[in-house]
Write a structure and sequence with these properties.
elongated; mainly alpha; 8 helices
Length: 212
């Protein structure tokens, strides 16, 4: 055990539970896309038309799957540095997973009413809540070296905080944009994961510590 961590509950069951929930939630997303039932002549043309009409479902599926992947990667990376847990961290993790599990519902609401301000807002609020809880999860574990090693790079702690909060700015902007034109919300929801996927300073820190 690294210096700076004074013992506590194991993270093994937290990580197992989290991975299980992520796998279930990411699988449930595809249930929002229905296979069309068409009959008669020109079945191919009818299938294409029916599938085209489901574009909001495909959009929300792809977007939400990538967003969940980002949440999972952030959560996974946190536990590279978190060496133990306590009651507060357990509950922060539980509430984080609660909002992660809500994403298939809010995604379906958004897909079913893609131009409705309320549906756009519910989806964005869901993602913001999950992001904020993941942020609190990291802050609680890393601040004052509560559940991490005392020699953790302070710059890495700060970069991770910024990285976790960064997408929330786009989600909040997407909610506000819906009052002007819903298409702007679609654009902002799409930009958030794309920018997150691009390499950043924290990735270089991760590679450096992983190889050390």
């Amino acid at each position: 055990m690294q210096a700076g961590y004074n013992g506590g509950l194991s993270t093994f069951r937290i990580e197992n539970l989290s991975d299980s929930i992520f796998s279930i939630v990411m699988t449930i997303l595809i249930l929002g896309i229905k296979v069309p039932s068409v009959h008669g002549k020109n079945v191919s043309a009818l299938l294409l038309r029916e599938l085209s009409s489901q574009w909001p479902n495909f959009f929300c599926y792809a977007l939400s799957f990538v967003v969940l992947g980002i949440f999972w990667i952030s959560h996974h990376n946190q536990f590279h540095y978190i060496k133990g847990s306590d009651r507060i961290l357990l509950w922060l993790n539980i509430f984080f997973l609660m909002f992660v599990s809500l994403i298939p519902f809010s995604a379906q609401l958004f897909a079913g009413h893609p131009w409705a301000i309320f549906a756009i807002g519910v989806y964005g609020a869901n993602l913001i809540c999950a992001s904020l809880l993941l942020y609190l999860h990291w802050c609680y574990a890393a601040d004052h070296h509560r559940l991490v090693a005392s020699d953790i790079d302070p710059e890495l702690v700060l970069l991770a905080k910024r990285r976790i909060l960064f997408p929330s700015l786009f989600y909040a902007a997407a909610i506000l944009a819906a009052f002007f034109h819903p298409a702007l919300s679609f654009l902002l929801y799409t930009l958030a994961p794309i920018l997150f996927i691009l390499p950043s300073r924290i990735d270089r820190h991760w590679e450096k510590t992983a190889s050390a």
